[in-house]
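FW: tagging you since you asked about this chain on Friday. Here's the raw sequence from the shared folder, copied in full. Didn't touch anything.
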Amino acid sequence: MERILYMALYATSIVRVVWGGDSEITLFLKHIHVLPDCAAVDAVDFLNVTYESGAFANKGKELTPTEVKNQPIIDWNSKDSFFYTLMMIHSETTPECIKTLTKECQFHHWLVVNISGNDVSSGDIISEYLSSGPSKGTGLHLYVFLLYKQPRELEFEEKFINRYSMAGRSNFSVGDFSEKYNLGLPLASNYYVAQYDDYVPIVHAQIGY
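HL: got it, structure written out here
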């Protein structure tokens, strides 16, 4: 089957992915190697990701760091008896990183585990939310939200990271983390792209970058 892939990360505000037989988000996650190409999965749902500014993540829509500066509201179809893990990762948009999403390309902005139902505030925070902060002149950067259903309530050994720290956020592997805790494949996802704006120096100062 011929795959038609449009990822205009450098020139447009929307990432569009089409592949007959797969949902947009499923194909997108396969393309960045969050899902293996051979994965036989049901269509991965889109997460509802809404910011206080009124902005929302929507299949690669371009948002500004100013719009996403505060932690978003996340909503999905859930069951109260289940526990979930939510993560937000950033990937460089170099061709190599988009093609492979290696550990060296990944930086996690937010990680919450043991979420009961879809109440994110009920979960255990491993990493507090950190806004997008792409450096000036580096173009569009990719930000991906991933939701996993846990097999049960779990004990996580990762150390807490507050919103003022970069330590422990870089060289993060989605695959290694999900395998370590037997999370399986993501249930839902969404993503946006962002580039430098005047709020970025505030983000950098916050984390001492």
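FW: The chain is about 15% helix and 25% strand.
HL: agreed, and The first strand starts at residue 4 and ends at 6.
FW: great, closing this out.
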